[in-house]
């Protein structure tokens, strides 16, 4: 109820105003919790690394494990997978893996929230690539925003098999122009030729049933590693009470530029999908794999014809001496 | 689509059967991840303990902080709070806290997933208690189930002010009989007098709009500390490959007893609510508190009459030199 929410929120504003606590103090303690959480992720990655290696070895022996897991994925992943994507994945996906690459590589001081998501494929009729890997860097912007940013990944589609209908290629093209530094059009904030082509394509495409593979085109905000490091340093100094230069607000040109980039984003929730894969699907893969079987066995009960050999809730094919406890609901 | 799910799940069963991997191997690696997760929780509690102390000091200065946070709670908490509960909470709740008591107490080897949730109240017209604290112990049962169990908490309602309409008192009564060991009725599995009274009350009560305070009556499965320790030891031995005695299946009497207890549970999702409070509301309290203000400020934009002094997205009362960055979306 909007009215109730409005009441509560103005009550909150009042409560804060009437207290001796500033919004900044609240934001600061939240930042401390955030830092602690980041440290915990670092420890978690270290602790679970050998387990993931062990698990990968096990799962590599189960045919179609990852395609079947994707079929069972929760809505925030499943909603993006079209029937034609399913066909490709089920027939050709051989492996999926997530790597917190900024801390597993040589530079152990990187951000543990950055993830590389890798899909491995067998020979297939859609594209040449054996591996499609997309990296997401956790960055902090000058205005205080923080989150995942990425780069588009080129897929070498076979003839007439481009599931994105050419959209991904136009994103790659516009990105290459942007990276070359020669992307300026005659008027700043106005689209250059590559961007115009992409814009035209987007306008002509029903973005509703877009292929999952357009996710490889997600870019997000443009925040370089240097800008990020500077923003983090400044924030830390401010919290220590040191004097820091005021953030320069974005110029109108810069804002227009950012608006343009955001309008050309072909997969706006690409960062959310990355988080869903890295933090839900990847750790919970076995749970999703077996959950389907548990549900199926339970629904079989409704149709039981009184066959006493059926053990309710256990898996088909399980021998008597392999009685395993039901998988616990994992605290996530 | 049920058909699609059924196809996938039988495909999964087939995939597993055709592999050299057993369901037990999958369950074992899941258990190893579970153990790692428990260790991480232990580290997280240690790391964040001083931050929660610091935060509590800050929040104690903001009047009505916790009642306002509860008003903003996500659906899985909010759905249980009735209007009459709201009135009580808003006028009298002074503090809410969560304590992983099994590891913060002297015995540091306890389970970090056990939580004590404490509500503190000012003098109010509903009940005498200044503090209502409910403990949840993380236990493992002989059949492999694991999760939170609790005990009912007595509320000293003032005359004609019992928001649970007498239900909670009957739960307490039945529990006391159960704990005394004198709970056996003439026939095992049949309800004793206290249980009959509770059963009758439940039947006569519309359980739909039940007061949030009936949550204090949640009990869950009966799994003692001894049974839990034994089950955990046995599980560890089995995973090491040692020979362990077969689990004794429940007798029919024991099953009837458990069914009876489950039917007398006045708040079946009490463990889920505990988890929502301990793992979402408690860590995210400031986020929930300020989120309402952010949403309110944004919706104010729709009705802007061109007043240039309104800063979009910033909080009312915020002075110019207190420009704080927007609270980041915390990775949960």
**Spatial separation of the terminal alpha carbons of chain A:** 30 Å
Number of helices in the DSSP assignment of chain A: 12
Which pair of chains has the greatest number of interface residues, and how are they split between the two chains? A-B, 84 and 84 residues
Bulk shape of chain A: globular
The CATH class of chain A is Alpha Beta
Q: Identify the quaternary structure here.
A: homodimer
Report the sheet with the most strands of chain A, covering strand number, pairing sense and barrel closure: 4 strands, antiparallel
Chain-averaged pLDDT of chain A: 85
> Architecture of chain A in CATH?
2-Layer Sandwich
CATH superfamily of chain A, please?
Nucleosome assembly protein
- Derived from helix and strand composition plus strand pairing, the structural class of chain A reads alpha+beta
How many E-type strands of chain A? 4
Give, in spatial order, the strands making up the sheet with the most strands of chain A.
1-2-3-4
User: Do you know the CATH topology of chain A?
Assistant: Arylsulfatase, C-terminal domain
Radius of gyration of chain A: 24 Å
Q: What helical percentage do the residues of chain A reach? A: 40-55%
- Proportion of β residues of chain A? 5-15%
- List segments of chain A where confidence is low: pLDDT < 50 over at least 5 consecutive residues: 304-332
* Order of secondary-structure elements of chain A: HHHHHEHEEEHHHHHH
Task: Give the tally of structural domains of chain A.
Answer: 1
Q: SSE layout and pairings?
A:
Two copies of one chain form a homodimer.
Chain A: H1 2-17, H2 23-59, H3 65-71, H4 75-78, H5 83-92, E1 93-99, H6 101-104, E2 115-121, E3 131-140, E4 146-150, H7 167-180, H8 193-203, H9 225-239, H10 252-263, H11 270-281, H12 285-301
Antiparallel strand pairs in A: 1-2, 2-3, 3-4
Helix pairs in contact in A: 3-5, 3-12, 7-8
């Amino acid at each position: 109820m909007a009215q109730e929410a409005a009441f509560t929120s103005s009550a909150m504003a009042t409560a804060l105003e009437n207290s001796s606590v500033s919004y900044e103090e609240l934001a600061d303690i939240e930042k401390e919790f955030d830092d602690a959480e980041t440290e915990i992720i670092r420890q978690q990655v270290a602790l679970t690394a050998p387990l993931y290696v062990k698990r990968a070895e096990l799962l590599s022996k189960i045919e179609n494990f990852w395609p079947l897991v994707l079929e069972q994925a929760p809505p925030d992943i499943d909603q993006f997978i079209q029937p034609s994507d399913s066909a490709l994945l089920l027939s050709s996906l051989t492996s999926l893996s997530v790597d917190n690459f900024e801390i597993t590589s040589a530079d152990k001081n990187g951000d543990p929230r950055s993830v590389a998501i890798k899909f491995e494929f067998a020979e297939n009729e859609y594209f040449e690539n054996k591996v499609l890997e997309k990296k997401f860097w956790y960055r902090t912007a000058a205005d205080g925003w923080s989150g995942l940013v990425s780069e588009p990944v080129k897929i070498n589609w076979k003839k007439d098999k481009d599931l994105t209908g050419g959209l991904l290629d136009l994103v790659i093209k516009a990105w290459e122009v942007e990276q070359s530094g020669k992307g300026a059009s005659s008027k700043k904030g106005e689209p250059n030729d590559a961007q115009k082509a992409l814009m035209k394509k987007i306008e002509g495409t029903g973005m509703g049933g877009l292929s999952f593979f357009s996710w490889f085109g997600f870019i997000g905000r443009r925040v370089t590693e240097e800008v990020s490091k500077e923003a983090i340093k400044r924030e830390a100094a401010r919290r220590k009470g040191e004097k820091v230069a005021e953030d320069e607000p974005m110029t109108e040109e810069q804002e227009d530029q950012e608006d343009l980039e955001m309008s050309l984003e072909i997969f706006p929730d690409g960062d959310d999908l990355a988080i869903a894969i890295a933090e839900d699907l990847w750790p919970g893969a076995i749970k999703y794999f077996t959950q389907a079987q548990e549900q199926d066995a339970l629904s079989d009960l409704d149709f039981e014809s009184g066959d006493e050999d059926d053990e309710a809730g256990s898996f088909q094919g399980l021998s008597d001496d392999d009685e395993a406890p039901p998988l616990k609901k994992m605290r996530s």
